[in-house]
């Protein structure tokens, strides 16, 4: 809407991370990576953010190049540290680090616009973009050899619907066919692994097995309102990105099924779970989700 490139870049970066680190070969999306991981220095005790934080000395060691034309004969490390707020003593406030795990460490945060960083060092915006891209690539290579955080390979229907929306919408807006295709893969994943055609029900979740195959818990949990709502919304976004009518048709079928399962004829609105499910003690309606659903349909 704004034409501001920063927003497109951030969206693309998020989807790059998801497609690289949170994607199953089946087309599904995993739930999360842990915040804690084993530090590079070794030991068995995990630490907060160990996989993705940096010391100032690490940055200087990795980025020693002198940047031609930069004010004060600045090194690449100087420009990188300025732009991403890296400090000698670390940039995590003590009140945000109650266990002292991040002392001397830095979380990389964009502190200045590219224009301000360029002006500060007397170089062009294009040069700053080029330098930061190169620096990030170098640091990413080093990060690859760090102990990986634990991966939660649970794949939730609702969250997969949301990611399908994200890939479809970003792909359509930016004209990126690969992103649209990733959304299509997610659509087929949902239909194959989280839809029971016999019972006509969404299944809440599945997970990656020991042999990298998709497995269901036994017995599988039937989907809740958010699973239907977010998949339907994702299918509509996918249809608008591809104009393939199979996605529109399935969205309509799911909407009819959602109304059968969750709609409250007496009080109006949707229950969060099937009101006829005897295992659910309370028949709840989630106001925030209901408002979201109304605003998107």
UniProtKB/TrEMBL annotation:
Annotated transmembrane regions: none
Taxonomic source organism: Xenoophorus captivus
UniProt name for this protein: Spermatogenesis associated 20
Signal peptide residue numbers: none
Domain of life of the native organism: Eukaryota
